[in-house]
Amino acid sequence: MSRLCVSIGMLCCLCAMLLNCGGGSSPVSTGKPAATPDSAGVPSAIAQSQVVKSGKAALDSLNGSPRASDGSFSFATGGVVSCDGWAFDDVRQSTPGDLWIELSHAQTGHHYYWHAQRYPRPALADAVKIPSVKNSGFRCDPVGYSLPVGTYTAQVYQIEGKNAIVSDFSTYTISPRITVK
Counting Cβ atoms within 10 Å, is residue 139 exposed (0-12), middle (13-18) or buried (19+)? Predict the structure, then answer.
């Protein structure tokens, strides 16, 4: 399974694009394949877990740009190429290693998943006075797709055992609104 769960769903996406089944305007060509919504493959780590609303998290940047003062991010359909932030399980005071970002399209309800890697953020662990969360940073894996135009909300899934600790990036700020133009 690829990092964004692009699998057999690409065939469905291609068929929909060729037949213009999406209802709405023709897709914008960006040179990258369209992202495949969750119907084609929720990551197995999430699908096999019990979802628990908990955790602390923040999304610091998308495509190298920090969030605007209103908490929003905006970028062109050329794609999502990078993200940076932090997340930890505040109940277990841990940083589960398997981490996914879920982007939910506000108009269609489709979900898109983006895998992330951990990295150390000792200053955050010092600030929250929890030494065990030094590895709370995350950076999203590179992807080669383009999201459909629209507005998105975001959540982070931290997988630990059979639990998926889910947070909406609203620990110290409002949850981000992401606009793809």
Answer: middle
44 three-state secondary structure = helix
Helix (H), strand (E) at residue 9: helix 9-19
DSSP letter for each residue of 112-149: EEEEEEEE--HHHHHHHT-GGGTT-EEEEPP---BPPS
Burial (0-12, 13-18, 19+ Cβ within 10 Å), 171: middle
Compute mean pLDDT per 10 residues along the chain, 181 residues long, and list them: 34 29 34 54 91 94 89 80 93 95 93 94 96 97 83 95 92 88 88
Read off the amino acid at residue 25: S
Instruction: For residue 165, give the amino acid letter.
Output: I
Rounded CA separation 92/104 (Å): 27
Q: Which helix (H) or strand (E) holds 84?
A: strand 83-88
